[in-house]
Each structure stands twice: as C-alpha cells, then as structure tokens.
Design brief:
By secondary structure, the protein is of the alpha/beta class. The protein has four domains: 127 residues, Periplasmic binding protein-like II (D-Maltodextrin-Binding Protein, domain 2, 3-Layer(aba) Sandwich); 96 residues, D-Maltodextrin-Binding Protein, domain 2 (3-Layer(aba) Sandwich), CATH 3.40.190.10; 124 residues, 3-Layer(aba) Sandwich (D-Maltodextrin-Binding Protein, domain 2), CATH 3.40.190.10; 85 residues, Periplasmic binding protein-like II (D-Maltodextrin-Binding Protein, domain 2), CATH 3.40.190.10. Helices cover 36% and strands 21% of the residues. The strands form seven sheets. Strands 7, 8, 9, 10, 11 and 12 form a six-stranded mixed β-sheet that branches. The chain has a five-stranded mixed β-sheet with strand order 4-1-5-13-6, sandwiched between helices. It has a five-stranded mixed β-sheet with strand order 17-14-18-27-19. The radius of gyration is 27 Å and the shape is elongated.
Length: 507
C-alpha cells in the first residue's frame, strides 16, 4: 500500500513539474506542442513564439486572463487537458468528430492543409511526376496517411522520419526527392531561407481550434476565446499575426473558420493521425531468453524479432516504449496486474488467452521443431523414437501444450527459460527440446553440436503469434495492427524473419 501511495504522490508531483502548478484559482493553464513552427517553437533566444502563442496572448489580454502557458509536446498536452492537469489546449489541434467527443472546441482560427515540396530546382506540379521517386514525411501525421493512401496510385515510395529536421536534411542531400508537411510549416521554412519550392496545390485536411475538456469547468473559456477571435478578425489584429508568421500570401487561406476536415483522409479514428490522443509511453513486457524473438546479446542489450517489431510500431505511431524482460510467465502476470500494457513474447493466440487478453492481428504463423544432439540426429526419425525420453519445453508456451498432448509416452519437462532447456540437451540431462522453428534454427546455427530432428509436432491450423494487451486497450491495438500490416506489406517483416538464424541467446 505504501508503494502505491508513493507512486501516486510521485505521479502528481511529476504532473505539477511538467505542466506547472496553478499560481492561483484564476490562472488558466494552457498547454501546447513543443516544436511546431510557425505555430509554436522555441526561438534562438530560448523563448517560445509563434501563431498560437500570439493568439492566446492576445485573447488573454482582451479577456483579462491570467495565463500560464507550457509546451510539453502534443500528446502530453492532449492528455493533460483530458486528465484535468491543464485547463486548455492550443497546439495546432485539428477539429475532428473523434475529438469532439472529448473536447469542446472554439471557432476555428486556421484552415490547414498539407503540401508536397521539393528543392527549388526540382519542379513538381503533378503527383504523376513522383513516379519512381521517394517522398519523405513525418511519422504519425495526416501527411503520412495521405501519402500511404496514394503511394500505389502515383507510384512513389514513402520514407518516414521522426522530425521535420531529419526529413529536410534528407531532402537537402537528395536522399528523398520530395517531402510532404503542413503547408504553413513549409511556408515558414521557405520564409526562413530554405531553398524549397511549392508547385502543387495543397490538400485540405481541416481546421485548427482552441479546446477545453468536454463537460469540464472551463467550457466558459470557449465563449471568451470566440468573442476575442471575432474582435481580432474585425480590427485586423488576426491578419497582422498571420502576416507576421506566414507572409501576405497566407492571409487568404487562413481567414476562414468554417472549413470541414476532408472526408477522403478519414482522419476520424485514424491511428496515423498526429492528433489522436494516445499514451506517451507504453510498457511492453517480454521473455528474457527466447531467441530469435527476444534475447540478450553479448553486449547486454535485448534484441530480436519482437524487439524490432515493437520499435517499428513505436516509431511509426509516435509513442515511446519501455521494455522489460522478466520472462514469459511473469510477462503475462504483468499485463494482468496492470504493471505492463502489452506482452510481446512470441505469444500464441489461444481461446483460453482470449478470455484474458485482447490480441493484435497475427504477425507470425507458428512452426514447430525439435532439437537433439547432433550425434543422435539419425536416432530421431519419428515421434515414436521419443517414447520414454525426456523432452524439455518452455513453461507456459504453446509448445508445452503440444508436447503434453502428442508425447504422452515421453517425460515432458517444463523449464522457465529456453536457454536452460538448450543447456540441458547439450549436457545430456534431457534428450530433446521442443520449440518454435525459427528459435530452433537460431540455436542450431550457433551450436555445432545440435541439430534439428527430421520430425516435428503437429501445429494446429491458425496457430499464430500476436501482441497481447489488456482488455479494452483499443488505441494501442489499432496502432499495432496498422503497423503490423505495413511491415508485412513493405517486406520489412520478411527481413526480420530472414535474419532470424543470426539470433541466438549466446550471441
């Protein structure tokens, strides 16, 4: 109990540190993105500036708000308002039907769009000119959604980046031919001296608005914001702010406050959309020794197929992961006890497990293999040869169940770690080890005294491995499924499997 109270206390103190304690009951805490120029960004003088900063300060002045504005990052800002740690959100937030269920929005203050841009000497006036080219985009954005949807139509390849800086560096060096980002972001970069050109019509994706928690005590702020915004548009202050950051050419496109998000982009519920509220960090529990899916290499670092998969998912969806490796059984218990968000441990989907966990789409169809000592390889040409023999399996795995069902005349020994089972067969303590085929291939490739038997246990049709999550974790499930599909479609997952034989617990 003391530990739980301490955790709660530390969480509260952390929130106060990040978002700032309210100076008084009348202070309004407004949260924003960290780096989203020209809407909000830290300038060379280490002061946050931009369209959102200027607008909220002008509203505060007109409505006598005492504002405390902080910049924790988009997802953290969204979560802060949802959880009541902050009062309002001003972070280039697109109005969508999904968000309307969570937030109350002001009148919109900017109609945004996304646009293709190139180096100034490369003129792209039609998407057809991108055939055979590579187009850069930031992970988890509406631009990525649009490019992924249209890549096959126009014949270009999409390359993703974590930040605009990395993407633009690749554009500058010619590693990508073109890039796609929010139109005002690109316009601002050009205004700052970047040698880029926009020669194609932007794609409208929706409108930005100020937001508060729906049904919360701060909904009155919406009325104040709308009144001030209307005044600013009428007296020219709004145009001055837009011209300051975007130039005269941007005024006309930013005046409207009634544009609706493009239905073609299907932004509502899209896990790739930047502004979908999501947990900033997920705890993923794994096996401690299950090469090639996860294992600790000679440098003490956990690597493997499952590690590659979850890192790819996190990168694509824009969240962080905390990996723990307590072992298979402990991983299952961690999710059940809410100490972890998901299990990624070469876990097979079963009806029994479906009662406890939600599963992602499968990422691997189960294959079985039996390892024996190489000098006894010829002995085990049939399952009958295992009668009266000791067969090791990893506790809690699908292989444990298969062995107990199909090797009734054998002694099935359940061990905690696969590495332990391998050591047992090498030393002669057991006669064979039943395990996943790619895992087996990895151990055999790295141990010259071991071999794969010519027979294997029968695997039920449809047996497959997937990510297991706590029931009701729909956002994580949606994100995982989207990236699994992408990894399979672009061949990345095949590369993971291709390299599987290189993995070993003893690497």
């Amino acid at each position: 109990m003391k530990k739980k109270l301490l955790t709660l206390f530390l969480s509260v103190m952390s929130a106060l540190f990040v978002f700032g304690a309210k100076a008084s009951a009348s202070t309004i805490s407004v949260v924003s993105d960290t780096a989203y120029a020209p809407f909000e960004f830290k300038d060379s003088d280490q002061t946050y500036k931009g369209i959102d900063v200027d607008i909220i300060n002008e509203v505060a002045k007109r409505k006598n708000w005492d504002v405390n504005q902080t910049y924790p990052g988009f997802d953290a800002a969204v979560n802060a308002v949802q959880s009541g740690q902050a009062d309002a959100l001003m972070a280039g937030t697109t109005v969508t039907d999904a968000r309307k269920k969570v937030f109350t929005f002001s009148d919109t203050y900017y109609d945004t769009s996304i646009v293709i841009y190139t180096r100034s000497n490369d003129k792209v006036s039609d998407y057809k000119q991108l055939k055979g080219k590579t187009v850069g985009v930031k992970n988890g954005t509406a631009a990525q959604t649009w490019l992924d949807k249209n890549a096959s139509k126009y014949g270009f390849t999409v390359k993703t980046f974590d930040t605009s800086d990395l993407m633009n560096n690749s554009l500058d060096s010619g590693s990508v031919y073109a890039a796609m980002d929010d139109t005002p972001v690109v316009q601002y970069a050009i205004g700052q001296g970047k040698d880029y050109a926009i020669n194609i019509k932007p794609e409208s994706i929706g409108s930005f608005a100020f937001a508060v928690k729906k049904g919360g005590k701060h909904e009155s702020l919406i009325k104040d914001f709308n009144e001030a915004l209307k005044e600013m548009k009428e007296d020219g202050t709004y145009d001055e702010i837009m011209t300051k950051w975007l130039g005269d050419s941007a005024k006309a496109s930013s005046k409207s406050s009634s544009s609706k998000p493009s239905e073609a982009l299907n932004l509502t519920g899209d896990a790739n959309a930047k502004a979908t509220p999501t947990k900033e960090t997920y705890t993923i529990s794994m096996d401690s020794s299950f090469a090639p899916f996860e294992y600790q290499n000679g440098s003490g670092k956990y690597v493997g197929i499952d590690v590659d998969i979850i890192n790819a998912i996190a990168k694509n969806q824009g969240f962080n992961v905390k990996l723990t490796n307590p072992g298979f059984d402990a991983s299952l218990n961690a999710v059940q006890s809410s100490q972890a968000d998901a299990v990624l441990a070469g876990m097979t989907i079963t009806d029994a497990r479906k009662q406890i966990f939600d599963f992602s789409d499968p990422y691997y169809e189960t294959q079985n293999a039996i390892i024996v000592r190489k000098d006894q390889e010829s002995t085990y040409s049939s399952l009958d040869a295992l009668k009266g023999k000791k067969v090791a399996v990893q506790k809690g795995t699908i292989e444990e169940g298969l062995a107990k069902k199909q090797l009734k005349d054998s002694t099935v020994i359940s061990l905690t770690a696969m590495g332990e089972a391998i050591n047992e067969v090498k030393s002669g303590q057991v006669d064979a080890v039943d395990l996943e085929k790619p895992v087996a291939e990895g151990y055999v490739a790295q141990n010259s005294d071991l071999a794969l038997a010519s027979v294997a246990l029968k695997v039920d049709d449809g047996d497959a491995k997937a990510v297991a999550m706590a029931k009701g974790n729909d956002k994580l499930k949606e994100a995982v499924n989207k990236v699994i599909k992408k990894l399979k479609a672009d061949g990345t997952y095949d590369e993971y499997i291709k390299d599987a034989s290189k993995y070993t617990a003893a690497e």
